[in-house]
Amino acid sequence: MGLLGWSEIHPFTIASVADSHEGLVLFCKKAGSWTNKVFDVAVLGWIVLR
């Protein structure tokens, strides 16, 4: 990630709702090879999409 990695723009957001039992919510835009792989894993059913 590097020294300035925290300041880079990322195409995803990690969100959660305190009253929800769904766990972690990840909003992700397909914007490159890494986020495309995340989407592919989700499509395979390793991640629940709603």
UniProtKB/TrEMBL annotation:
InterPro entries named in the record: FAD-bd_8
GO molecular function: oxidoreductase activity
A Pfam family hit: FAD_binding_8
Domain FAD-binding: 7-39
Protein name per Swiss-Prot or TrEMBL: FAD-binding 8 domain-containing protein
Species of the source: Lentinula guzmanii
